[in-house]
Amino acid sequence: MTMNNPYQTYRNNAILTATKEELTLMLYDGALKFCNQSIRALEDKNFELAHQLNMRVQDIIQEFQLSLDDQYEISGSLALLYDYLLRRTIEGNIQKSIEIMEEVRELLKELRDTWKEAMQLAKKKPVAQVVNE
Question: b/e map of 3-37 (b: 16 or more CB within 10 Å)?
Answer without folding.
Answer: eeeeeeeeeeeeeeeeeeeeebbebbeebbebbbb
